[in-house]
Structures are given as structure tokens and as C-alpha cells.
Design brief:
This protein has 12 helices and 42 strands. The chain is an alpha+beta fold. An 8-stranded mixed sheet has the order 35-36-38-37-39-40-41-42, with helices on both faces. Strands 9, 12, 13, 16, 17 and 18 form a 6-stranded antiparallel sheet that branches. Strands 1-2-3-4 form a 4-stranded antiparallel sheet, covered by helices on one side. The radius of gyration is 28 Å and the shape is globular.
Amino acid sequence: MRKIFSTLFLTAIIMHVNAQYNDSLTASDYAHAERFLRYNTQPYIDNGEVNPLWLPGDKFWYRNLNPKGSEIIVVDAIQGTMTPSAGQQKTGDAVLNRREFNKKALISPDSSKEAFIKNYNLWVKDLKTGKTLQLTTDGIKNFGYATDNAGWKKSDNPILKWSPDSKKIATFKQDERAAGDMYLVTTNVGHPKLESWKYPLPGDTNIITIQRVIINVDEPKVIFIKADPDPHRASLSDDISSSGTFDDVAWSPDASQLAFVSTSRNHQQEKFRIADAATGVVREVFDETVKTQYESGQGTINWRYLPSSKEIIWYSERDNWGHLYLYDALTGKLKNQITKGNWVVTQLIKVDEKKRILYFLADGMEPGNPYFTYLYKIGFDGKNLSLLTPDKGNHSIKLFPDENYFIDYYSQPDVPGISLLRNIDGKLILTLEKTDISRLTATGWKPPVPFTVKAHDGVTDLFGLMYTPVTFDSTKKYPIIDYIYPGPQGGSIGSWSFIASRGDNQSLAELGFIVVQIEGSSNPLRSKSFHDMNYGNMADNTLPDQAAGIRALALRFNFMDTNRIGIWGHSGGGFATACAMFTYPDFFKVGISESGNHDNRNYEDDWGERYNGLLTKDAGGSSNYATQANQLYAKNLKGKLLLAHGFMDDNVPPSNTLLVVEALEKANKDYDLIIFPNSTHGYGAYSLYMMRRRWDYFVKYLLGKIPPKEYKLESKQDPRNPGSMQ
């Protein structure tokens, strides 16, 4: 009897161990998933996108990575030749070193001087003699010249634009004196360090403004432009220096005039103005006012001042699509609409004033995916529209410095790219590289699957990507993970070009999930009405589209388990994730909310005021922002929620997450929290730690298995390119 009992007991232990093993993932499972991160896939991609370093005379060189290592290729566009040249590396390193040296100084067009900030004033240095000259003397803290602070982003770089003759500088005196402060405190042994800087919030009476100036360099003189200070805004984004230096300004070729655009605090009015560089007197040319928010393009500002013909190229969405218009610069009257149709101009990349031809990128004109970008040209009169990049796919254009040639790289999310050399009229000169992923596919890698579903309105097409495990079994039911970034200045997908590893989407799929990305309505690159669908209610977060899209996919694919749906995102995606868990508690069961701006009253002024409108209060004192705050709905949580934030986050202050934490505790709700005491918005050195914790959380609570204990993700460099960052 004792023997029988012992046998049964041993059998029970074995069965328990086996059951536990079957309910666990091992370090080997995580190692398999790690193989699909960028630092492990990139070394298997050969002949990738060409990234040029320009040389004189319509030439450039690039480093090509292949199975044997890497090689330097020199291309002569005029001769139409490609030549291996190992010696070019030294020249390229010198170019890169010069770029690094110029981060905190801007070199004049004639390369004789560089401008920099010292003690809130602007200085120049003669690069030949080394002598420095102070241009301004009245700059003080929080009221300095050319200083860079958008609240969420700041630097020591000077924000200015040199005149073509290198004798004048257009910049501003930035007034932050009355703006509110933001505070963060370091975590360390001993007294903590207080970090403070100017960071206005929506509804603040005082925000950061700029008083525009023109500075004569040789004999220093500051000429204040005769116009009221402008809000620290740009027509393209929430930063007057989003391009890296001064946006929305343009010198005339003879430096006698400075054209600029003033953006209102709520981004609803744009004023085109021209200042006399000698006197600062301003002439109002025209303005455009919209009901929601004005766009000047995607990725670059698209207006141009053309003094020689006394004309202005202007960008507008007045007919519901982003298009180019021609204005008379003297009268401010519209001459004609240049581009027209149910598609959107994204970037104006070249203006040929002599031939009166524009070269521009646009989305949605060609059949298929409306997010694929192509290059076109058209006359100023709107005639002779021509497609210059006919190959199907998403095109990335790199224009030569003299603008006579360009590199055309095109691909699709599931189709590797090809790099071509074309002349400015689109004629093919050379096929530079064809991306080879044969070594990558041999490892078991596979691309995501593009799909189309209907939006929550049942009419609008939405586009997305789906990731399935390489060991996919269509007879199984897989839990779903929705990666979300709701915009509205961007979207979940990001680039629609070929990318072997889009974050950790495929890695999560390898752990036993179906991962989806859905580009929701209220994101850019479509019509204005599409983009403005949730204007004034950012808490919508494209969640109705996410839910509708997942339901539609589940009807199409029975391997998707809608009883087990997770969601995660970072920043705006963190805001959306917590919102999903609180407002769709029976749909989304597990959420991971990283660095979320959960209450936009606690996020920088411009972003919210642009896409949500100005903060207003009703008779009872409640604001239009209040009802969109995540903490108000925390009591609705039913599933598992992990919150994460860096406590030195100078983009989205950590108070955003702490407001949600406090509300969850008040509501007696369980939650999980990861803090990064000295990390900023993206967690820096701890980003892989966060990724591993993300995997663990979904494996444990959505997949229902036990993750391996403290698996360590370790980044590595591509051995063919030691200087690369993975």
C-alpha cells in the first residue's frame, strides 16, 4: 500500500511539474523572440537603403553593407558610374566631425563665421582669426537671444537664420519671464538636484513669446521687427525650431527683406508678413484662418517667398486636402490653385523659378495604400502634372545639393527596397542597390501582413499591419495585442517603408500573440476632415477605430481570440492605453501604459492647444480639458494595468502618471507600476529592461503563462558597421 501511495505521489509530482512546464515560457523562448529585434535582424540585411555623403560635382559616396562586410561606393551622377573606393572613409569621417562640431554654433553661408549663444546673448566667431564679437548685450536669463525652449524640448543650440550674404542674422529675443515653471528632482544619495525650466501649460495666462529681430553682424546692431511678439509657435509643429533651427522665416536673395509667418496661440490663424531688413517695418501680405488647426505640410514647411517674381507659394487645406496655392506677394491676392484633387501634398522639395516648376511629394494620388509617398512635378499654373517615381511603394527622396539629381528609395512594409539614381525629371540613371533579405528570411523571419478594415463609422478605410508567429498555426486561438499611438500629429505605423523590425511587434508575436497596428482616423496624411475627426476631444484616442478594426479582423481570421485583447503604447500611446482600459474595460483586458500624458492640463501648452483648442471654463469652473483626463475614469478598471514613467521625464512630466496612480488608489483598484528614477521620456539605458517587463506582463496576464525569471535583453552592434546604433 505504501509503495502504491509513493508511486501515485511521484506521478502527481511529475504531472504537476509537466503542467507547470507547459504553462511556462523558457529563456530559450525569449531568446527566440529576441532574434526579431532590430539589433539581431539588421546584420542579415544586405544592400540596404543608400544614405549619401555629398561630394563636389554631383558626386556622393555611401557605405554599402553586404554578406562579406562593408564597402565604400563613390557615385558620379554626371558620368553615371559607381566605383568602389576605400579611401573615401577618411573624407566622410571629417564631414561627420564637422557636423558634430557645429551643434552649438551655426556657420554662415560663406563659411567665414559661426554664431553661438553666450550668457543669453548672441556672439559670432571669425573662423579664420578665431576672434569673437558680441552682437547683443541686453540678453538675460529667460529673456535671451536665439535661445531654444519649447517646454517639452530644449537645447543650447542657437535658433537663427543667416542671410545669404552672411552679413545679417534673423532671430528673436525669447521672453519666458512670466511663463510657469516645471520641476523635477533627481534620485541620489544626499541632497537631490532640482531641475527647473519654463514649461507653460494649457490655459496659462502667460506663455513663451518671441520678439523677432534682425541683427547686423559686421557692425553689431539689433533691429527689432515692428510687430507684436508672437507665441512660440510654428506653422508646422509645436516648436519654432522643429527643423533644428529657425522655422517660418526666409530671406530675400539680396538680404533686403525677411519674410515670415506668425502663428496664433491656437494655431487657427497664420499671417504672412514681410519685414524691411534695414528698418524692421512690416508689411502684412495676407492671412489664413481655419476653424480647427492649420497645417503647413508634413515633415517640412511648404511655403516659399519668391521675390524675383513677387510671388508666394502657400500651403492650405481649404478644400479639405493639403495643396499648394500661388499668391501675389504685392497684393496678397490668390493667383491660382496649383495642385488639386483628393490627395495630399506632403513636402515641397524644389522650386524652379526660371522654369516655373514645382517638385513635391504627395500621398494618395496613386492606386493602393494612400500612405505611400511619390514624387511629382507641376507648373506654377497647375498644368503638366507628372509622376517622377512610378514604381509602386513608399518613396524616400534625397535631393542632391544642386538639385539636379535625386536618390529614390522605394519599398513596402512587406517588400524590401530598391535605391535608384534619377535626374530631376525622373530619368533613371543608375540602379544603386537592391535590398537583399535572403539571409534574413533564412533565419525564419517574415514580414508583417498589411490589411484594410473599416473605421468605426463603417465607411472610412483604415490601414494597418498584423504580425503572426513564424510557427503560426491557423487552428489555434491567439490572444491579441494592439500597439497604439493615437497621434494626432502621427500614427501607430510611422513609416510605411520596409523595416525588418518595427519595435518589438514581431518579438511579441513570437511569444504567442497576434500583434496589430491600426492607423486610426484623426491622424495626418489623409484629408483634413479625416485628421480633424476628433479635434477638441483627444481622449477619443482613435479607440473606436481600434475596437472596430480588431472586431473586423477577428471576423476575417478565426485564429484571433477577442476574449484576450491587450493594448500598449508610449507617450500619447500611454495616454490611449490607460484610456482604453478605463473606457473599454470589457474589451481590453491587459494594458501597459508607458509615459502617458494622461491629463493634458499637465502637458505642455502648445500640443494640447493645437489639437484640442484653447482651454476654456464653463460657468461652474469646469474646463473642456477636464472631462478628457484619464484619472476621472480610473474607477472603471477591470483588467490588469501596468503603468511606467521616468521620473526625470522633461517631455511628459511624471505627475501625469501619478494622477492616475492616486485615482486608482482612491478607487481601491489594483495596478502595477514601474518607475525609472533618473530616466527621461524614453528610459534611455533602461529601455530594454522596460521591453522585457512588457513581455513578462503580457505573457503572464494575457497569455496565461509564467515568463522566465529576469531574462536580459542585450543590444549589439552590426559587426559590418561598428559605429552603427542598433
